[in-house]
Amino acid sequence: MEFVLEEAAIILARTPGTLSALLRDLPDGWVLAHEGGDTWSPFDVIGHLIHADRTNWMPRARTILEHGEAKSFGEFDRFAHFRNSEGRTLASLLDEFAAVRQHSIEELRGAVSMSDLNRLGQHPALGAVTLRQLLAAWVVHDLDHLMQISRVLARQYTNEVGPWRQYLRIVREP
Amino acid sequence: MEFVLEEAAIILARTPGTLSALLRDLPDGWVLAHEGGDTWSPFDVIGHLIHADRTNWMPRARTILEHGEAKSFGEFDRFAHFRNSEGRTLASLLDEFAAVRQHSIEELRGAVSMSDLNRLGQHPALGAVTLRQLLAAWVVHDLDHLMQISRVLARQYTNEVGPWRQYLRIVREP
Q: How does DSSP assign B56-113, residue by residue?
């Protein structure tokens, strides 16, 4: 499918409501569940999405619009949210994500037009990227983390489903 | 995590709202998008979830409660929803799923208690299964399809994300 700016905005705008519908008021054991080792819980993921909106997606779009390839994007700290989320409740993170995302979407609609989509920026690791690729990656990044949260929750019942495991891809795959 | 009846009911009750938040009023191209070949679109998945609630989950639980292992579950028609969804809008399917699921949860809370969870039933392919395994599989089945819908949507932008593909597991994996 071809990238369409307004469709991307529609999908991005839905993510906070989707995550709130899925997670708000779930028992703590589920909110804090993870896949073992250093893997993230739903709580961790919401913190990461807040931090990514604040420091990554629209800030990088603005860097492209203002500086093009002349200025490389800053590095993205994939672990900063652990500090920012400390001591918070899931409800307060979900509320913050809804507010931050609404602000991001307003900025997106105000600052970017279709004619900007092929403008180039400089990613510190990936090299030359277009604004279109950055915005498409934002959409896919949301959905990647929604998939992650679904998987983390489902895997809590990997043993409890017994012989059904063979029918349920989400608990069958590594 | 150990299966807890009331926690399962809480998660099952959230699925219609989650899918509505994610999908309602998305452009048709997204609602009908799939992963190629015979794979399912978000529209198809909602029809399947309705059909599974109507004919599979609580009906099988009732079979266990009433007949134990003496009566095998009926076969589940994994394709019936293609007929039932024909000509429908996504909005009407989402509304129907919300109503059907609410009814299922009321039945679950009314009919099943913790002391029933180890009762045995007979699955036509899997053999002896417990009510606990059936109900855990219901929860995981919801989350499996939420993961599927996230993946189907994300993959529409597989090409549009360009070099970000290597960072985004959802479009990188086969």
A: THHHHHHHHHHHGGGSBPPPP-TTHHHHHTTT--HHHHHHHHHHHHHHHHHHHHHH--
